[in-house]
Specification:
Blueprint (H helix, E strand, L loop, with lengths): L2 H6 L12 H6 L2 H18 L1 H4 L4 H21 L5 H32 L2 H11 L4 H19 L1 H15 L4 H19 L7 H9 L11 H16 L20 H21 L4 H21 L1 H14 L3 H8 L7 H5 L3 H20 L1 H12 L2 H15 L1 H11 L5 H13 L9 H9 L6 H6 L1 H18 L5
Protein name: Sodium:proton antiporter NhaD
Keywords: Antiport, Ion transport, Membrane, Signal, Sodium, Sodium transport, Transmembrane, Transmembrane helix, Transport
InterPro entries: Cit_transptr-like_dom, NhaD-like
């Protein structure tokens, strides 16, 4: 027997064949190596801002290494099927989420390309709201847009408004960014489309689409408690007025309508025909492609009409844009999808799946959900989401499949969704805004308000357990 073979089978060529693969690998060098690889990879993920190393790179490498170790170890015990079956299961789960998110990101990028978000930003800036009013407007908009457009996109949009109107007030930008991160994460917690974690819960079938709305009030409490306290630090004076109106490109409103139709298609197909939601989303991509075809064949006629309007209204900015206008191509918004996030998610799903195959998830599930009580475990899951990121945490919980009441599944959905707000690195929205508002919004500026955000976290849990007591 080779040295590798002795190592891979636990240094014991006489290991009992009856001993299960899982039990053999939990306290086995292969298991320890896999766990170490994942931890090291995640340290690199958490240091993304400092190292400027995209988070997908370490987890992609870790995923491959873990599964090569696991499959090799299983093969040396004579088991050539179970690892492959487990990997295929993980790949199927990932492929459904990949295609779902790709369609959603394509629609969001198409709206951005049609200048829908620019028009919204220009409108807000032009109204002459005070800093305090803008603090509340951007927060409330983030809370209500994120359930549809996802928390990351929403946070970036609202941050662009803050950067535009608050350029003379660094303190306002910093507090406004914290407010937006909390609002976007809270808003994303009561919708399957608001965050990857809620999407995973819906795809798994443990919470139905309409049941997510039971978390609306707890999510609102999670946002409002810290927002009310922080608002006392915002001056009630108007910023410098600036910005001219932005004219949306042809098809902007129709893109929004088709996105809503796409969501409706996915929800109806999933709820009534029990089809994977991704089938409805991919059908919705066809809606956008047909709109793109219409915009392309009618491009010259549409540009001519817009040119007449711009000349009549003396809109020089629109005239300049029309001089360089090109037909809409649906594959351009698709190419601009956040591929780093999509590949990061692939790495996370396979890393956690590999650790689950080894048996670590069952051990953690035993500790959290059997040795502890489910409520305490789900609260801890939310706290971990602020440190580790909610995607691997929620995927691990779903992989464990603990035996919980419906109220507890809603609780872990809530805590995983809003727990990341307690630290700036705890959510994609926070990490993105640290880059977009560099120098204004930092980890330390967010940390100063962490106790207030934690108060909102506790209040949202108490609200959920009171309002939805019948589900526990």
């Amino acid at each position: 027997m080779s040295l590798f073979a002795i190592f891979i089978t636990g240094f014991s060529p006489f290991a009992s064949a009856a001993e299960s693969t899982v039990q053999r690998f939990i306290h086995h060098p292969v298991g320890y190596m896999a766990l170490t690889i994942f931890v090291i990879a995640y340290v690199f993920v958490m240091l993304e801002e400092k190292l400027h190393l995209r988070k997908s790179k370490p987890v992609l490498l870790a995923a491959g290494l873990i599964w090569f170790l696991v499959a090799g170890a299983a093969a040396m015990t004579g088991d050539t099927e179970s690892a492959n079956a487990a990997l295929q299961h993980n790949l199927l789960e990932y492929s459904e989420l990949l295609l779902f998110l790709l369609v959603a990101m394509t629609y969001i990028n198409a709206m951005e390309e049609r200048q829908l978000f620019d028009a919204l930003r220009a409108w807000l800036v032009s109204k002459g709201f005070s800093y305090l009013s803008l603090f509340w407007i951007t927060g409330v908009l983030a809370f209500f847009i994120s359930p549809i457009a996802d928390n990351l996109t929403t946070a970036l949009l609202m941050c662009a408004v803050l950067m535009k109107v608050g350029e003379n007030s660094p303190r306002f930008i910093g507090l406004g960014c914290i407010n937006i991160v909390v609002a976007a994460n809270a808003g994303g917690a009561f919708s399957p489309f608001g965050d990857i974690t809620t999407l995973m819960v819906w795809q798994k079938g443990v919470v139905e689409f309409t049941e997510f709305f039971r978390l609306f009030v707890p999510s609102a409490v999670n946002y409002l408690v810290p927002a009310i306290i922080m608002s006392f630090a915002i001056p009630n004076v108007p910023p410098k007025k600036a910005s001219e109106p932005v004219v949306m490109k042809r098809g902007a409103r129709r893109t929004v309508a088709l996105f809503l139709l796409t969501i409706t298609t996915a929800v109806l197909g999933h709820n009534f025909l029990h089809l994977p939601a991704v089938v409805g989303m991919m059908m919705g991509l066809a809606y956008l492609q047909f709109l793109g075809y219409y915009l392309r064949v009618s491009f010259k006629r549409g540009v001519a009409r817009e040119r007449v309007w711009a000349e009549n209204h003396k809109n020089t900015r629109l005239l300049k844009r029309l001089d360089t206008a090109v037909p809409f191509d649906v594959f351009n918004p698709m190419a601009r999808a956040e591929w780093d996030t999509l590949l990061f998610f692939y790495g996370i799903v396979l890393c956690v799946g590999g650790l689950g195959y080894i048996g670590y998830l069952s051990e953690v599930s035993q500790l959290l959900y059997n040795d502890w009580n489910a409520t305490g475990a789900n609260i801890v899951v939310g706290v971990l989401s602020a440190i580790v990121d909610n995607i691997p945490v929620m995927f691990a919980v779903l992989s464990m499949e603990p035996d919980m009441s419906h109220g507890q599944w809603l609780l872990v959905t809530l805590t995983a969704g809003v727990g990341g707000s307690m630290l700036s690195v705890g959510s994609a929205a926070g990490v993105a805004l640290m880059g977009q508002a560099r120098g204004y919004y930092t980890m330390m500026s967010h940390l100063r308000w962490a106790p207030v955000i934690a108060l909102g976290y506790a209040a949202s849990i108490a609200t959920h357990m009171w309002l939805n007591a019948s589900l526990f």
